[in-house]
Amino acid sequence: MRIAYLINQYPKISHSFIRREILALEALGLPITRFSIRSCQDPLVDEADQEELAQTNIILDVGFLGLLISFIKLALSRPKRWLNAFKITFKIGLNSDRGLMLNFAYLAEACVLLDRFSHLEITHFHAHFGTNSTTVLLLHHILGGAAYSFTVHGPEEFDKVKAIALPEKIKRAAFVVAISSYGKSQLYRWCDFKDWDKIKIIHCGVDEAFFSLPYRPIPEKPCLVSVGRLSEQKGQYLLIEAVSKLVVQGYQFKLILIGDGELKQPIEEAIQRWNLQDVVEITGWATQTQVADYILQSQAMVLPSFAEGLPVVIMESLALGRPVISTYIAGIPELVIPGESGWLVPAGSVEALVSTMKTVLDTPISELENMGKIGGKMVKENHNIAQEAQKLKLLFQSIH
């Protein structure tokens, strides 16, 4: 059995959970060959990501000519399979939001995967995200390549089910991983009832780097932290508005935003407009060690997202003993239990966010620490990457 992973962009700063999963599988004696369709455009600030890059095969490194040669070569050597893949590509492309041409590029990438890397004798491919990387594996399989499986995170896959041909991908997959019960329910909605047994829950997780850190008490100095790409769906802009209202009401605290992204400039402008330069700090991208240190400097994590799967930063925060404020969406309520491991607010409600942040800032440290410990226990029981990787290894073994 030889397993390979295919991801659209790997390694990537926001995909540390994939790296942990791969390394945990290898620790269980299952070597993983890494493939990425393209190189990541974001800087790789973590040394662990830089090490992963050195082990990763980049498909688009073959260039346009390499794509074309493999495309033609497979058409000549496997005409029936190639024609079948061509028809499926055309069908998917007609419904796709990406258009026909880009879907034929996915077919060319599948041809490269089969033509250039068949000597590696991969017996099974696994993808993270049910979008274009899984499209490549679907077409690769139709061309005669190895069986495949994939992990669905959401929200993107659930926002455009037909546009990414999710039902077709589930039908042809050996199995499909959901990262939460909520995710599993959404996959049930979009596949044939006879395929329900294919849907398995494997949680994303954290590793011993978080569990083994010496416990650090929650500091007395009021500080909140938010980790994630600065984007619309993460809700940080509303978080800045909530901070401005709390400051007007006389609350003194610090908010640290860890990340970067397309909404950075509007967020910086809002900070200037509401005179929050001494209250809000934007760090940019940070290494895993730096993220852990920032979390430990805080009293709680705040993640006011509009759309998610189940954010790994919530697991990281709870593993480090810090409770979490987040929203009633997707898989988040499966981990953030109001009154136990944190607080949940309606997504998009600044008023609810302000009220809950006040509650956190007014809560005695001892209560915050107790909530963090409850959350940490939940993460260790349900989101330990070593345990989850063992479940995934058994799934790989069950189909070979």
Please tell me about this protein's structure.
This is Glycosyl transferase family 1 domain-containing protein. InterPro entries: Glyco_trans_1 (IPR001296), Glycosyltransferase_grp1 (IPR050194). One of its GO terms (molecular function) is glycosyltransferase activity. It comes from Crocosphaera chwakensis CCY0110. The protein is of the alpha/beta class. It has 2 domains: 3-205 and 384-398, Rossmann fold; 209-382, Rossmann fold, CATH 3.40.50. The protein contains 17 helices and 13 strands. A 7-stranded parallel beta sheet has the order 3-2-1-4-5-6-7, with helices on both faces. α11 links the parallel β8 and β9 (254-258). α1 packs across α17 (385-398), α11 crosses α15 (350-362) and α14 (312-319) crosses α16. The longest helix has 19 residues, at 99-117. The mean pLDDT is 95.
* Total beta strand runs: 13
What structural class should be given to the helix and strand makeup? alpha/beta
State the domain count.
Answer: 2
Q: Which word captures the global form?
A: elongated
Our measurement of the CA-to-CA distance between the termini, rounded to an integer number of angstroms, reads: 7 Å
Measured as a percent range, the helix fraction is 40-55%
Radius of gyration: 22 Å
In percent terms, what proportion of residues is strand? 15-25%
Low-confidence stretches: none
CATH class of the largest domain: Alpha Beta
Question: Any idea what the CATH superfamily of the largest domain is called?
Answer: Glycogen Phosphorylase B
The number of helices is 17
- Largest beta-sheet details: 7 strands, parallel
CATH architecture field of the largest domain = 3-Layer(aba) Sandwich
